[in-house]
Structures are given as C-alpha cells and as structure tokens.
Design brief:
Adenine-n6-DNA-methyltransferase TaqI, Chain A, domain 2; 15 helices; five-stranded mixed sheet; alpha+beta
C-alpha cells in the first residue's frame, strides 16, 4: 500500500503533453554492414558494440566503421525486423542500417523514461510488424508514436518526475533480474539433479533386464500419415478431429492437451487416427521430442506413434527412456540441411525393459520429481513468472498517464 500511495502522490494532478517521438528525441542511422562482415570484424573485448537483429552483436574497433556511424549518446535502439523490440545502451555503439536509434538532446527529457514507456508498448509495435510476411516496422511507426511528457511547462519538475519513475523502474528491473537469475540457477540445478536421478534409475546392466526394440513391446508402432492431396487444401481442415503437429508435441509437458489444427472428415479418411495414450515422437527439425496424446488424434509422417502393449510396458516409461538418450538421438540426425532421423533409427533401438512392476515404480518416482522441477504452474517457474508480473504491474502503474481524445486522434 505504501508503494501505491507514493506513486499516486507522485503523479497526482500532473499535467501531461503527448508528443510524437520525433519531436522529443533525435533519430540516428546505423552503419552499412552485413552479418558476415560483423563476424569477420568481431574481436573479444573490442570497445564498440554493433547491434543486429535479435541477440546478434559484434564487438569491433572504432576504426572498423566510419566515425559518422558511431553513436556516443545513451540511446534507445529500435530492432525493427524479425524480433521487434527496444534496447537501451549507454556506451558507444552502432547498428545495421535497417535499424535506427534515438537519443535526447533536451535536458528536460530523460532518455530512459522514454525507453521504459516504449518497452511498455512493445507489443503495439510487434502487432504492426506482424502484418508483414517478415515482421518489420518502419521509421514513421516510431517517429509518429505519441509519448507523454509530464509537466511540460515546468522542465525542472518534469525531469524530476521522469527521473523518479526511472529510478523506481530501474530498481524493480534490477531486483527482478537478480531474483530471476537466482531462481533460474536454482531451476537449472534441479533439472541437472533430475536428469542425473532419471539416468541412474534407467541405467541397467546387460543381463539384469530384457533388452527389446520398441516394435517388440508395442501394439502399434509407425509413422503418422499426411501424404494425401495438397496439404494446404482447405477441405482437409476445420473439422472435429485433432491434428497434432510437431510444435504441439514440443510445447507440451508429458501429455498433449492442446492443439492448433483439426482435420475434416475428408482429412481423417486420408490419414490415421491414433488412440489416446499414444506416445508421439518427432523425427524432423526438433528430434526426439516426446509427449503422450491426451485424446484421439492424427499427426503427420514427421511424427512416430507408439502404442504400448500394456503387458510389456507403458507410454510413460518409454517416454522417460527416450528422454534419457535424447542427446544421442539428436547426434544421429546431424549433418543434413534439416536435422532429421528416420523410423529405422527407432526400430533398431534396443532398450531396457524390467518387469512391469519395476517400470511402474520408476515412472511414479520420475513423475513426482519432474512435477517439482518442470511444472509451469508450480514451483520455481511459477515464481519467476510472478516476479515478472510484479514488475510489469508497477511499470504499467507508473506509466499510465491520462490521454485526451485530441491526443489519441493525433
């Protein structure tokens, strides 16, 4: 309550002027450089940072690019293609020339205040960019964007308010980053413990257990089916039958509960319906991702289906077995333009199968340990999410200035 009262008092009765960003900050250009040149010029420890899209950067010497392309003011960098976002940087830098940046030449404008406001509205710009085949925005999108200037007729008070908002948000950012780093480190340690524990439980000596192929312990085992009339034919889709894709498998935990595509009756007739409980295994792009169907569904031939013979094993036990050798399976798929392996790789695998009661004991133990480690609604991942939401709440509260209809129209 004290935080809320303090912020309400800080902003109470404050007059706000909304101005286009181009009237508040100075826009600067980048330098003509390719990703290949950045890679060649990069030197660890060099003083000048060159930004490209996403997380791509290079460190170069000052004489590696024209002096006119070096920005020396604290600036907001606009990453305008692919992943659209804003980044704040204080040291000398440059960036690829399809990007741009802004700095302040006005003592009454706190550049980082504007940065925090743009970060608040990052999704707005991502929405604009999503209209293009390759997500991107143009300079008018940011130049014309309205930003709030508190107390425009009192520069000293305006700067004081901006600076205080920046101080609070920077403190929250630092606290959130520190806590998130600690929690992430803890989560990574738990995952390593889990992987070690899983691998120990699933390590058997020759002679201790039976070693069998997946086909020997399956009621059904094979690739999905999607080789029918053109896959983009709209008459194949839009019905009631779930059509699972590799992304649905990758994004699920142990059980697939959600899907983004469905088959019509025509699509179902030309495909194969796999029963609830089928273990899905990807064999292209992201190799050996696994999850279990939570409902009857179809899937493409880039996915293998495994239906367990309940007298021999379970989908859960086989999934844990495959996850323990995932790195080995990924290595088998390397070397092609798009990483992939074929059904034969899995047909020839010899895997350990102790008695059913022992398999059930192992699965029960690993289920409990994984719930603690990986659950997105419980434990450490949930705590990380809550910390981020706490920061976003205070940021939104601090940067929610009243806007008149005339300002909105502008």
């Amino acid at each position: 309550m004290s935080h809320l009262s303090y912020m309400e008092k800080l902003l109470d009765g404050v007059e706000v002027e909304w101005l286009p960003l181009k009237e508040v900050l100075v826009r600067t250009k980048g330098t003509k450089i390719t990703a290949g040149q950045m890679k060649v010029l990069h030197k660890d420890g060099a003083p000048l940072k060159i930004f490209a899209g996403g997380k791509t950067v290079a460190f170069v010497d000052f004489n590696d690019i024209p002096e006119k392309d070096v920005n020396r003011e604290p600036s907001i960098i606009v990453k305008s293609r692919g992943v659209i976002e804003f980044e704040y940087y204080e040291k000398p830098f440059s960036h690829k020339n399809e990007m741009w940046s802004y700095y302040s030449d006005n003592d009454a404008i706190h550049i980082k205040f504007i940065y925090h406001f743009l970060k608040l509205h990052e999704r707005h710009f991502q929405g604009i960019g999503s209209r293009m085949q390759m997500p991107q925005i143009a300079t008018p999108d940011t130049d014309k964007f309205l930003v709030p200037i508190p107390c425009p007729n009192n520069p000293e008070k305006s700067l004081a308010i901006q600076a205080e908002i920046v101080r609070i948000l920077d403190a929250f950012t630092a606290m959130t980053a520190e806590l998130t780093a600690e929690l992430t480190a803890e989560l990574n340690m738990r995952k390593k413990q889990y992987n070690y524990y899983r691998d120990q439980l699933l390590s058997f000596e020759e002679g201790d257990v039976e070693w069998k192929t997946l086909g020997e312990v399956a009621l059904d085992f094979g690739r999905g089916k999607s080789k029918h009339r053109p896959r983009n034919d709209p008459s194949l889709y839009g019905g009631d039958t779930p059509f699972i894709q590799t992304g649905d498998i990758r994004n699920a935990a142990h059980t697939i509960q959600e899907y983004s595509q469905t088959y019509s009756e025509l699509g179902l007739k030309q495909s194969k319906l796999w029963p609830k409980g089928t273990l899905c295994i990807t064999i292209a792009a992201n190799i050996a991702e696994t999850s279990i169907l939570g409902f009857d569904a179809c899937f493409p031939d880039s996915v293998i289906g495994f239906v367990a013979n309940p007298e021999e094993t379970s989908s859960s036990y086989v999934e844990y077995l495959l996850s323990s050798i995932k790195t080995q399976l990924e290595e088998k798929g390397q070397g092609s333009a798009q990483s992939n392996i074929n059904l034969g790789t899995f047909q020839n695998l010899k895997l350990p199968f102790p008695p059913i009661t022992e398999q059930e004991r192992i699965v029960a133990l690993l289920d409990k340990f994984e719930l603690l480690t990986n659950s997105i609604t419980e434990g450490l991942p949930r705590e990380i999410e809550l910390r981020q939401k706490q920061y976003e709440y205070y940021r939104d509260l601090l940067l929610s200035f009243p806007q008149s209809h005339s300002d909105e129209a502008a």
